[in-house]
């Protein structure tokens, strides 16, 4: 009898899961284009320079570089060589680009020529440009958690202790920053004027390991995309009060908010893009789940076209058994399979 109930319960759970997938699979968004641009090397973050109409993708490995594409056509336009970066950001006013690498490389975004290198400590990973005072925040999982650089001349303004390992940062452009702290399960509020943390918003009661952060600046709403469990924690940016939570996919590593459509996006390594509609500052719903490409865990928003761009590659099956002294995991990247995936309406 107990076994029968277990079987029936599994069937009901499976049916509910399938129903949810069917409910969210259809919608206005779809994969518009998959550009197989190829190239060897690993990858992490992708960044759209909306004003300059360029797409930056750092590649690691034997020939580290930042590959640069036309944001509209996805045709290659150049690269910044010998740069082992994880991420990129751009100051559209000074036309200066910055890499999260050691040292940080600063370049002219119009010519892609290197201007200077900037020595920083820690292990550069995430990055944010804040237009409030034209500063770049180089984020690191180890101290110093943030190195602050003046985007106009590349000088180091100072460092900032965020109280843990930062993943993604957002700004209101008016002197307030927010950073999700992955290992502490909170969101740090930062005063950009004083470069001081003013609060930590704990989200551990709802979910842990926040790996993506998006921001509705107008309504002061934060979207913290968490891995454990797979949850979007939505909270008030002023008080830190949790408004609600919604399910997302597995292996999230990026989030973005589009004020033109009032939608938050989270990208997951399981090959899904979750789209959350903000009906009001207190009402949210999973609008759609788009199937993208396995491994497409980071994203960037082109706010001019309202399109989301993701990056991924194909991998061979892992070796069986794993190599001596090694560990099980994915196989080698399939040559020239690296792709840019464009999602839109």
Structural class: mainly beta
The averaged pLDDT comes out at: 92
Overall radius of gyration? 20 Å
Share in β-strands? over 45%
* Main sheet strand line-up: 1-28-27-26
Number of helix segments?
1
Helix content: under 10%
Order of helices and strands: HEEEEEEEEEEEEEEEEEEEEEEEEEEEE
Tell how many strands the DSSP assignment holds.
Answer: 28
Instruction: Report the major sheet.
Output: 4 strands, antiparallel
Descriptive overview:
It is a single chain. With 345 residues, the chain is mainly β. Helix content is 7%, strand content 49%. The strands form seven sheets. A four-stranded antiparallel beta sheet has the order 1-28-27-26, with no helix packed on it. A hairpin with a 5-residue loop joins strand 11 (135-140) and strand 12 (146-150). The relative contact order is 0.12. Residues 1-23 have low confidence and may be disordered.
Helices and strands in order:
Elements: H1 2-25, E1 30-36, E2 47-49, E3 54-59, E4 65-70, E5 76-81, E6 88-91, E7 96-99, E8 104-108, E9 114-118, E10 124-130, E11 135-140, E12 146-150, E13 156-160, E14 166-171, E15 176-181, E16 186-191, E17 196-202, E18 208-216, E19 221-228, E20 231-236, E21 242-247, E22 252-258, E23 263-268, E24 272-280, E25 283-291, E26 299-302, E27 307-312, E28 339-344
Antiparallel strand pairs: 1-28, 2-3, 3-4, 4-5, 6-7, 7-8, 8-9, 10-11, 11-12, 12-13, 14-15, 15-16, 16-17, 18-19, 19-20, 20-21, 22-23, 23-24, 24-25, 26-27, 27-28
């Amino acid at each position: 009898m107990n076994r029968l109930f277990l079987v029936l319960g599994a069937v009901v759970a499976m049916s509910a899961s399938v129903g949810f997938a069917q409910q969210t699979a259809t919608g206005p968004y779809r994969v518009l284009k998959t550009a197989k641009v190829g190239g060897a090397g690993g990858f992490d973050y992708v960044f759209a320079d909306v004003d300059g109409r360029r797409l930056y993708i750092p590649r690691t490995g034997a020939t580290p570089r930042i590959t640069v594409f036309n944001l509209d056509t996805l045709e290659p336009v150049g690269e910044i060589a010998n740069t082992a970066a994880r991420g990129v950001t751009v100051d559209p006013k000074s036309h200066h680009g910055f890499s999260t690498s050691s040292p940080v490389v600063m370049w002219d975004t119009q010519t892609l020529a290197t201007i200077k290198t900037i020595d920083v400590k820690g292990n550069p990973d995430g990055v944010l440009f804040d237009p409030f005072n034209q500063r770049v925040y180089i984020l690191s999982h180890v101290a110093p958690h943030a190195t602050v650089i003046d985007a106009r001349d590349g000088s180091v303004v100072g460092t900032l202790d965020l109280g843990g390992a930062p993943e993604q940062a957002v700004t209101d452009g008016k002197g307030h920053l927010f950073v999700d702290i992955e290992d502490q399960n909170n969101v740090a509020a930062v005063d950009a004027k004083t470069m001081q943390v003013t609060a930590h918003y704990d989200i551990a009661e709802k979910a842990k390991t926040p790996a993506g952060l998006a921001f509705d600046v107008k309504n002061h709403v934060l979207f913290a995309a968490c891995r454990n469990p797979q949850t979007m924690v939505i909270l008030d940016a002023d008080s830190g009060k949790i408004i609600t939570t919604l399910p997302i996919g597995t292996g999230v590593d990026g989030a973005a908010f589009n004020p033109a459509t009032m939608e938050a996006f989270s990208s997951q390594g399981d090959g899904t893009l979750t789209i959350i509609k903000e009906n009001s500052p207190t009402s949210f719903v999973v609008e759609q789940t788009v199937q993208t490409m396995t491994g497409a865990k980071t994203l960037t928003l082109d706010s001019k076209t309202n399109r989301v761009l993701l990056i991924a590659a194909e991998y061979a099956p892992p070796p069986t058994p794993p190599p001596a002294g090694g560990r099980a995991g994915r196989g080698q990247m399939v040559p020239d399979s690296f792709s840019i995936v464009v999602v839109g309406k």
